[in-house]
Amino acid sequence: MKKIALIYAANSDKTALVAKKIQKELGDAVEIVSVENAWQNDFEAYDHLIVGASTWFDGELPTYWDELLPELRTLQLKGKKVAIFGLGDQAKYPDNFVDGMGILADVFEEDGATLIGFTSTEGYKFNKSRALRGNQWCGLVIDLDNQAELTDKRVREWCKEIIK
Q: At a CB cut-off of 8 Å and minimum separation 6, what does 69 contact?
């Protein structure tokens, strides 16, 4: 069985909640690693990566992801599949909705990883986002502030897609 790391910044209870929902959907193959405790070999040792972050302030990554960015930029991930999930508030931050997810996507793409799990923007109301790739999100987008009732369905459908 392929080893899958689910790496996320735990400085948000909401991100932790979504990470646990993803782990529940995917089962025992997924090992949760807090980004606060992650090292370069954690990213390179697993067959597949699921990474997640909320967007803070005006489109920034949470502290631990932000501090790890220089190290992330040195990874060799050619051929590795990476799925990304991001949290944001489309009503309060429509001009940088889930930008943190887009920042992570940029870094992993630069490292040679193959991004998987793109999703539709249908049902979201925002002005712009760094997480867009064409007319799709570069991963799973969750807005617990405005669309909490859609979270379980979105997680379930996304997990089915990324394990294909």
A: 61, 103, 107
Alpha-carbon span 164 to 160, nearest angstrom: 7
Specify the number of domains making up the chain.
1
C-alpha to C-alpha distances, 93 to 38, 77, 104, 122, nearest whole angstrom: 29, 32, 18, 17
| Distances, alpha carbon 44 to alpha carbons 5, 15, 51, 63, 123, in Å | 10, 23, 13, 22, 35
SS3 8: strand
Determine the structural domain holding residue 58 and report its residue range.
Answer: 4-163
DSSP state of 127: S
Task: Write the Ramachandran bin of 19: left for phi over 0, alpha for psi from -120 to 50, otherwise beta.
Answer: alpha
> CA distances (Å), 145 to each of 29, 125, 151, in order?
30, 13, 11
| CATH code at position 91 | 3.40.50.360
> Mean per-residue pLDDT for 72-79?
86
The pTM of this model reads 0.94
| Percent of the chain with pLDDT strictly greater than 70 | 98
